[in-house]
Write a structure and sequence with these properties.
The chain contains ten helices and 14 strands. The chain is of the alpha+beta class. The chain has three domains: 88 residues, Arc Repressor Mutant, subunit A; 98 residues, D-Maltodextrin-Binding Protein, domain 2 (3-Layer(aba) Sandwich), CATH 3.40.190.10; 100 residues, Periplasmic binding protein-like II (D-Maltodextrin-Binding Protein, domain 2, 3-Layer(aba) Sandwich), CATH 3.40.190. Helix 1 crosses helix 2, helix 1 crosses helix 3 and helix 1 packs across helix 4. The relative contact order is 0.14.
Length: 305
């Protein structure tokens, strides 16, 4: 038996199946747009590689040998499976369907993304959404995600980014958390317990900007946590003053449970003021990713910053 080149071997098997299905070399050659001699050479090569006679050929007839019949039964199943796999794969680029793996931060995923999921899946019922909420950056290649939703100052290269919605920090507190000491300027924060999202992102220095002016205030805190909802809960428990994403506390501010502080000043955080959808660059963007990102952009566009 000759040394077998696997790719050529698979190709020769597919031609063998065509010859049997079409009941002849000429018909098989026409169906594959090959010459009859090219088909004959491929079948001869397959027989030499296997060391088996697969077809009995005369000038007027062709029949399968016993070995040929056994090979055909298995090879035909393999060719049919490849054809079906190709059709399924092609279907993923023809319409929005298939598994869509998405990751987002915990609070953004719960408060901003989750409310949109029912309408999205109702519109695209052939998509299966797998959502993972993580308060860390992920590697889309290593971890196998299609889309990451992240708040970032600058989307990382080489990822493709689409802006989804503006975001900003709110400086806020419950009335009891102020301990009777009003905050009228950033410097007044120095005597308060100052809570924020993240363990190292802000450190112990908070920055505020107004009309081109920037002020830095050194603050202290007895607790740090990497979840905005927990910070919000601590503020509601009168634990102090907090810097929190607007989407985590705007309802509480509107309801009067939390007070918005220093509204004329803009807190400067490490994550910028935009939520992005991030995905890997690819020549042909799968429809499932395209419709998901477009749906989010439309659904989140009117969210106030």
């Amino acid at each position: 038996m000759e040394t077998i080149n696997r790719l050529e071997h698979l190709s020769d098997l597919a031609i063998f199946v065509q010859v049997v299905d079409r009941q002849g070399f000429s018909a098989a050659a026409r169906s594959m747009e090959l010459s009859k001699s090219a088909v004959s050479k491929r079948i001869n090569r397959l027989e030499m590689q296997l060391g088996l006679r697969l077809l009995q050929r005369t000038t007027r007839a062709m029949s399968l040998t016993e070995a040929g019949r056994l090979l055909y039964e298995r090879a035909a199943q393999g060719v049919a499976l490849l054809d079906e796999s190709a059709r399924l794969a092609a279907g993923l680029v023809e319409a929005p369907r298939g598994i869509l793996r998405v990751t987002a931060s915990v609070t953004f995923g719960k408060l901003c993304l989750a409310p949109l999921i029912p309408a999205f899946l109702a519109r695209y019922p052939e998509i299966e959404l797998q959502l993972t909420l993580l308060d860390r950056f992920v590697d889309l290649v290593d971890e196998g995600y299609d889309v990451a939703l992240r708040l970032t100052r600058k989307p990382p290269d080489p990822l493709v980014a689409k802006a989804l919605m503006p975001v900003r920090y709110r400086l806020c507190a419950a009335a009891g958390g102020l301990r009777g000491r009003p905050i009228e300027k950033p410097a007044d924060l120095a005597g308060h317990n100052c809570l924020h999202y993240g363990l190292r992102e802000f450190g112990n220095e908070w920055r505020f900007q107004r009309d081109g002016e920037e002020v830095r205030v050194r603050v202290g805190s007895n607790v740090m946590v990497n979840n905005s909802e927990v910070v919000r809960d601590l503020l509601l428990a009168d634990m102090g003053v907090g810097l929190v994403w607007n989407y985590a506390v705007d309802r509480d501010i509107a309801a009067g449970r939390l007070l918005a502080l220093l509204p004329e000043w803009t807190p400067v955080g490490p994550f910028g003021q935009t939520a992005y959808a991030l995905w890997l660059p690819q020549a042909h963007l799968p429809p499932k990713i395209r419709v998901f990102v477009d749906f989010l952009a439309a659904g989140l566009r009117e969210t106030p910053a």
